[in-house]
Every structure is written in C-alpha cells, then in structure tokens.
Specification:
Elements: H1 4-11, H2 15-22, E1 28-36, E2 39-47, H3 51-59, E3 63-67, E4 73-77, E5 84-88, H4 98-104, H5 106-116
Antiparallel strand pairs: 1-2, 2-5, 3-4
Helix pairs in contact: 1-2
Length: 120
C-alpha cells in the first residue's frame, strides 16, 4: 500500500506540488492523478466544499426561490459544481514537466491514480 508521503517523495517536483498531493480529497485545491485507456494525466482539482457538506448537497435537490414579474415566488432547480478538474502538463509552481514525472515513476503514478479514483 502506498502512502501520500511516498507519492509526495516520488512525484513531487517541488514543495508546492507536494502540498497539492497532500491535499487530495480535502477542501480547496489539490492535484489528482488519472489513468484512462493508457493515458496518464495530472489534474488540478478544486473542491469548494467540505466532503460532509458535499454529500448532503448531492443527496438533495437545491432550489432557488425568485420573484417573477408579477411578484409571485417561483422555485427553480439550481446546479452546483462540487468538483472542478483542469488538465495540467506542467507544475503550477516550478514549471517542471509533469509528463516527465509520470514517465520516470509510472508504477507510483498508477498507484496514485488508483488512490485518487474516489476523489476524482
């Protein structure tokens, strides 16, 4: 079983990127690894809500109440992004090629991608 410490040591090109690996699954910004059909990529992952709040929101339909032109209340369904992912090819801190990091540590990257599945 791999730990986040090992992932940080093997795949963290700098202190900033290592901190993003440490933050996987937490509120705020992190980096997640994904392996799809042989393609291996890092994504900058943004989670604006705590996991407990996110779960509650996903289980209920949110509605927004507005007043229409006649002054009557109208209830509309509202969508809320609980996770955003942006493909990144270079470290946002030091500029290192992440493709190079992946190629040097394929087994570690694949283990990290497996670890990230529930968070992606």
């Amino acid at each position: 079983m791999h730990s986040q410490k090992l992932f940080r040591e093997k795949l963290g090109c700098c202190q900033g990127f290592s901190a993003l690996i440490q933050n996987i699954g937490e509120k705020g910004g992190s980096v997640v690894a994904a392996k799809n059909d042989g393609d291996r990529n890092f994504y900058f992952h943004v989670r604006p809500l705590d996991h407990s709040i996110e779960s509650a929101i996903e289980s209920e339909q949110l509605r927004l109440q507005l007043s229409d032109l006649r002054g009557q209340l109208v209830s509309l369904p509202v969508g809320l992004a609980t996770r955003l992912n942006f493909l990144i090819s270079f470290c946002p801190f030091c500029g290192s090629s992440l493709i190079g990091q992946i190629q040097r540590e394929i087994e570690t990257f694949d283990a990290l991608a497996e670890f990230c599945k529930p968070h992606f």
